[in-house]
Amino acid sequence: MKSIFWLLTLISLVLSYSPSNVIQATDKNFQQIVTTPGKFTFVDFYADWCRHCKKLSPVVDQLSQLFADYPQIQVVKINGDKDGKKMSKKYVTIGYPTLLMFDDSGKHVEFDGIRDVESFSNFIQQLSGVRLDQSKQDEVEEIVQEEEQEQDAIVSLKPESFEQQLQGTQYAIVTAEGSWCNFCKEFAGVFNQLANTVYARNKNILFATLTVDEQGNGEEILDKYKVNRLPALILVKDGDLANAVVYEGDLRRIDKVIDLINDFTGTLRDRTGELKEGAGVINHISDSIANANGDYQEVLAKLDDINGETVGFYKSVIESLMVDPNALNVEYNRIRTILDKDVDKLSGVAIDSLKQRLNVLDSLVLYR
Length: 368
Known about the structure:
alpha/beta, 15 helices, 5-stranded mixed beta sheet
């Protein structure tokens, strides 16, 4: 009887391995997996509704492949929404995803660094004492290089397809530069900072370069848009090239360029990429709420004709005011606490969303 039990247990463990070498654990077998003698276990606690978990999932799959030939290391996922609720309740203290490293005694350490393959790999090697061989280290380096290439947000435009490449973009910020131009080379560093740091979270803004070479390729674009000196910025909204804005002013001061792009795109970023106070606030809607005297139906109707990232939140605010105005205080304090204590656990997109909501509530501070 005992042999049948262990056979069934073994079969369940074998079946729980996915093609990525990740073990899919459940409440029933989790403790057995993480206390397997001689094993170190990296565990990803996730939830189906968590978009950060979905983004992280392929990274954990890559990690499992990296350690596939190292029997001392096992990589595990457990679903806190389904058959891993009990274990997730026990080990998840802040939110999803939660990443823990267990030794075979069941003791664990939480990972709180950058969530990429290189950082995970270093974390596992440090705690387990297991060292990847050179071929695996090279594999990690290749993954890092691929990620860096993907993170480069600047697109290189070709003169013959310049207009086609800008179609379908909400906002495009294009640097027109010359291959012989020394200041263009200097500005390239500033432009890279704009694309990959200041506006890295703004997926609705395309950053691109058009390079005119010494043979004159690309000059027809400069002539068409009346660009008289290099470098210059060509700013395009909604692919409307007929109304493109050409800026040939001061490009030496990054703060001035940020102000230009903020004004053009309606974004409020500082040079670190964080949102400024007032980002997300729709002033006339906040004023309308202030003057509504409890009658918010007209304000709700106005919101139906407005586009913006915080329109949905404004609707939620109005609904709260109609039911329980004190709920706004509760929401304000909740967001403030998260940003004060847990900001290092949030993605940039989540931070932006929370800051915009806080700004909206701040704009209503007199009416809360």
